[in-house]
Amino acid sequence: MSNTPVVTRIAPSPTGYMHIGTARTALFSWLYARARGGRFLLRIEDTDRERSTPEATDAILKGMDWLGLDYDGEAISQFARADRHREVAEEMLEKGDAYKCFSTQDEIQAFRDAAKAEGKSTLFRSPWRDADPSTHPDAPYVIRVKAPLDGETVIDDQVQGKVTIKNNQLDDMIVLRSDGTPTYMLAVVVDDHDMGVTHVIRGDDHLNNAARQMLVYNAMGWPLPVYAHIPLIFGPDGKKLSKRHGATGVEEYQMMGYPAAGMRNYLARLGWSHGDDEFFTDAQAMEWFDFDGCGKSPSRFDFKKLENLCGQHIAAMDDAALLQELEAFLAATDAKPLTDAQRDGMARGMYCLKERAKTFPELIEKAHFILTDRPITPDEKSAKNLDTVSRGILNELTPQLQNASWDRDALEGIVAQTAEAHDTKLGKLAGPLRAALAGRSVTPSVFDMMLVLGKDETISRLQDAAA
Question: Which residues are catalytic?
Answer without folding.
Answer: 243
